[in-house]
Specification:
Blueprint: E1 2-5, E2 7-10, E3 13-21, H1 37-61, H2 68-81, H3 84-95, H4 101-118, H5 122-142, H6 144-149, E4 157-163, H7 166-169, E5 177-184, H8 190-198, E6 202-204, H9 209-212, E7 218-222, E8 227-230, H10 234-252, E9 272-277, H11 280-288, E10 294-298, H12 301-305, H13 312-325, E11 331-334, H14 361-366, H15 368-381, E12 388-392, H16 398-417, E13 427-432, H17 435-439, H18 441-446, E14 451-454, H19 455-463, H20 473-476, H21 481-496, E15 501-504, H22 514-520, E16 524-527, H23 532-541, H24 544-556, H25 560-572
Parallel strand pairs: 3-4, 4-5, 5-6, 9-10, 9-16, 10-11, 11-12, 12-13, 13-14, 14-15, 15-16
Antiparallel strand pairs: 1-8, 2-6, 3-7, 7-8
Length: 573
């Protein structure tokens, strides 16, 4: 039995046989004969037609399970398949270079991929991901005979792929993908967004999968922990099977009247558990799982999947759908947390490090039309509703918050003068993810209604470790005493000013850390819906006094190793 760690993209637990995809031999450069050209071009036309038909069928089948923005991802794929330049380049490789159509697709994709990856634009890199999905689907259809000849799994299976792509997630011949493990693929790719929205346990960043796995191998995929277990022993397999069954049951479980009353610690202390999501499908999960509203809704998806900037009306429609899905529960929209480069907006100078550049509120203040577009859309969508808030990302100082606050007021006044229905009141809150904001929380709270602590990003900035960079993963996952000290200080600052503080992120749902959070005073969490039950189990297990003792032990621990010992002891108690 071997345990291999990767990056968790979508949480959950799955057990099944492995099916390897995307590990076909690389192009050999073999030239075809002149009399083979027409046959190869016909194969290309057939593969293009089949690929378009498959995507249309997927859109239709997934119309209820996916939101509008998620379905636009497939529109982007259809656009590539109908792109005359893309298709002509493939045909040219067959006609002029005498490559087989399979190798022509690989050559054209490799060219575009190199171009996209050389630029610093995250938007172009996402387009490279879409193009990769399209190329993968074309190759799968070109290799259809070989695939059909391969041994097919007899039941639900774990997809093991070189790259995380939608082409393999949506397999019309066998819709039994229970989990996905891939060598490559980031948290923000469209395939990752769809995996989270559909609740498919997914892990990326595990290298040399063909060396670790063979078709038909039985594995346990614990995506919540970012772990793949190969050749599991009987005990691990039994535990994994039971866990996977519980996972599927939790996804399908309908809301019950007692859900809200269960958000309590063992001694009856109420804890507000909100959902984090980024699409209409995930918003529906928030309600289905009986959560108390949406603590953070990511608004980037609609900007990323459309070639042109979305219109105000389309944003209003999307945001209103999210608000209505919660049936009166609160909804907080995080403004675009992206750089102008990411969104394909004009920028005078190319940034060497966009993650530390004009992202979040900085980019929005530099592109005021985008900021005001979002604010107007939220105000219009929230007309007649209550509990709607605007979250301001990547805040470092009070003046940034004040400028967004002023713009929000100005847009509300303008809408009223124009006779457009608008929200009577929308709350405003900063997202605390930069150490400077954490150190000045008190001042920020004087200008806001509450604050959201993005614990993963704050930890990444405190430890100077990118959570999406596998080479420094151990630093980001480090339980550094400084991180816990800062989180405790934030809770105290908010308590002194009597303002709510919401803890957001994957680490906010870490069962090992939840007692610490409760012990230092956090009473509101915003987590992925699929993480709810694991958090509730911890809450039900501890009283607040016990949590305070746990947090005191962690804050007294001088070294990372000492903190780790406290957390490990909690897991075995």
């Amino acid at each position: 039995m071997t345990r291999v760690r990767g990056e968790s993209v979508a949480p959950g637990l799955a057990v099944g046989q492995v099916v390897l995809r995307g590990f076909a031999p690389e192009a050999t450069g073999r030239r075809i004969a002149a009399d083979e050209i027409e046959t190869e071009l016909n194969r290309l036309r057939d593969a293009l037609q089949k690929s378009r038909a498959q995507i249309e069928e997927i859109k239709q089948k997934q119309s209820d399970g996916l939101g509008e923005a998620e379905r636009h991802i497939f529109d982007a794929h259809l656009a590539y398949l109908g792109d005359a330049m893309f298709v002509t380049e493939i045909e040219s490789q067959v006609l002029q270079e005498r490559l087989s159509v399979r190798e022509a697709v690989q050559a054209v994709f490799a060219k575009y991929d190199r171009i996209f990856q050389l630029v610093e634009s995250d938007l172009l890199r996402r387009r490279a991901s879409d193009l990769r999905d399209v190329a993968t689907r074309l190759l799968r259809n070109l290799e259809a005979d070989a695939v059909r000849g391969a041994a097919a799994p007899t039941g639900p299976y774990i997809l093991a792929a070189r790259r995380l792509t939608t082409a393999d997630m949506f397999n019309l011949d066998n819709e039994k993908v229970e989990g996905i493990v891939a060598e490559e693929g980031g948290m923000s790719s469209h395939a990752a967004i769809l995996a989270r929205g559909m609740g498919i346990p997914t892990v990326t960043g595990i290298r040399d999968l063909p060396r670790l796995l063979r078709d038909g191998d039985l594995v346990v995929l614990d995506a919540s922990a970012g772990e793949l277990v190969t050749s599991p022993d009987d005990t691990t397999l039994a535990e994994g099977t039971i866990g996977a069954q519980r996972w599927k049951a939790s996804k399908a479980q309908a809301p019950v009247a007692s859900d809200l009353s269960r958000h309590l610690t063992r001694d009856g202390t109420p804890v507000r558990v909100l959902g984090s999501c980024g699409s209409a499908g995930e918003a529906d999960l928030v309600r289905t799982f009986g959560m108390e509203g949406i603590g953070l809704f990511r608004t980037e998806l609609q900007f990323l999947v459309e070639k042109a900037r979305p219109s105000e009306d389309s944003l209003v429609s999307s945001y209103r759908q999210v608000i209505e899905s919660q049936h009166g529960r609160p909804v907080s929209f995080r403004l675009l947390d992206a750089s102008p480069t990411t969104l394909g907006l004009e920028q005078r100078h190319q940034e060497r490090n966009p993650a530390m550049g004009q992202r979040g509120v900085r980019g929005l203040l530099a592109q005021k039309d985008v900021l005001r577009l979002q604010l107007r859309a939220i105000l219009r969508a929230a007309a007649g509703a209550s509990g709607v808030a605007v979250l301001v990302p990547f805040v470092t100082s009070v003046w940034e918050l004040q400028r967004v606050k002023a713009a929000l007021l100005e847009e509300r006044v303008a809408l009223k003068k124009a006779g457009v229905a608008t929200a009577s009141d929308v709350e405003l809150a900063p997202v605390i993810e930069v150490p400077a904001a954490a150190m000045s929380l008190g001042a920020l709270l004087t200008e806001s209604d509450f604050a959201v602590v993005a614990v993963d990003d704050l930890q990444a900035h405190l430890l100077a470790a990118d959570r999406d960079n596998a080479s420094v993963r151990e630093y980001h996952e480090m339980v550094h005493p400084a991180v816990f000290e800062v989180l405790a200080r934030l809770a105290k600052d908010a308590e002194r000013r009597n303002k709510p503080l919401i803890l957001f992120g994957e680490s906010a749902a870490d069962p090992a850390r939840v007692p610490f959070y409760l012990g230092v005073g956090y009473r509101s969490f915003s987590i992925a819906p699929v993480r709810l039950r694991s958090v509730l189990r911890v809450m039900h297990r501890y009283s607040i006094d016990e949590c305070r003792r746990v947090s005191a032990r962690i804050l007294e621990a001088p070294r990372t190793l000492d903190v780790q010992k406290v957390l490990v002891n909690l897991e075995v108690e």
